[in-house]
Design a protein that fits this description.
Blueprint: H1 3-14, H2 20-31, H3 35-38, H4 43-52, H5 54-57, E1 71-72, E2 77-79, E3 83-86, E4 89-92, E5 96-108, E6 111-123, E7 128-136, H6 141-156, H7 158-172, E8 174-177, E9 180-183, E10 187-190, E11 193-196, H8 197-202, E12 206-211, E13 217-225, E14 235-239, H9 244-256
Helix pairs in contact: 1-2, 7-9
Length: 258
């Protein structure tokens, strides 16, 4: 691990800016990284990511698995300190390429009735693991374990996943999010429409997370307008899927980059 980065984390821990479990998770993220990807992130980019990624994760409680006290998610997927086990197969965290999570809840008269959660891990060899849970009235134990597994894996793999996207931007010039292309200069292209993120932000027309009717919220929807975001304005709207924590921060960075 880079000495300056470690010093930065140690200082934040000493000041109480991060909790012990988050400190341990971040240390693991840095120590288990793949050097051939990490070296492609510039110091400027890395400084931005380290400074801002905490707000993408929120402040939810998370139990950090260890080799001595692993997290058994569903009887088949078990998380340890340095690797996971699925149906008896041991897989290092460095083999993880992508992480996805979805949660959907329903309510009656504003009272929550059901909640469904799904979680997926995609590996560098193309194989994947998925599991889900649907709970009536209250959030069950399996749903909580799925949420915990996602919270842990997205932190411990964040740096590598971000590095992979940055590497693609550097070598290919763009990344694809569904039917949308995001270019290294900040251009967003969907069909015949092209809008620059920096221009959109200057015009106060760039939003990650939108609102719908009756107070509904869509935290993983991105709305990019040229000058305004009304239905008559030139705009691009798209959903984030896997690696949404990485993609949200990457879009923010491209919108702010000089």
């Amino acid at each position: 691990m880079d000495a300056e980065v470690k010093k930065h984390l140690d200082l934040r821990l000493a000041k109480g800016e991060i909790a012990q479990n988050e400190y341990v998770s971040l240390r693991r993220t840095l120590e288990h990284s793949r050097p051939e990807l990490i070296k492609n992130i510039s110091e400027r980019s890395l400084a931005f990511l380290l400074r801002h990624k905490d707000r993408m994760w929120g402040t939810s409680e998370m139990i950090v698995p260890t080799d001595e006290r692993p997290l058994d998610v569903d009887g088949e997927l078990i998380l340890f300190g340095s690797h996971l086990s699925h149906k008896g197969a041991i897989i290092p965290y460095t083999e993880i390429e992508s992480v996805g999570y979805k949660a959907f809840s329903q309510s009656v008269n504003l009272i929550p009735t059901t909640k469904s959660t799904s979680f997926a891990v995609i590996f560098r060899n193309g194989k994947f693991i998925s599991c889900g849970s649907s709970t009536v009235l209250i959030r069950g134990g399996k749903a909580k374990r799925i949420e915990n597994a996602y919270a842990f894996l997205r932190q411990i793999t964040f740096r590598e996943r971000m590095a992979a996207y940055v590497h693609t931007l550097d070598t290919q010039g763009f990344i694809e999010i569904g039917k949308v292309r995001v270019y290294s200069n900040g251009d967003i292209v969907k069909g015949e429409t092209r809008i620059n993120l920096k221009e959109s932000r200057r015009n106060k027309s760039f939003f990650i997370g939108t609102k719908g009717a009756y107070g509904s919220r869509y935290p993983d929807e991105v709305l990019v307008g040229k000058k305004g975001t009304s239905i008559l304005a030139t705009r691009i709207r798209f959903q984030l899927g896997n690696d949404k924590d990485v993609l949200k921060l990457l879009l923010e960075w491209l919108a702010d980059a000089d």
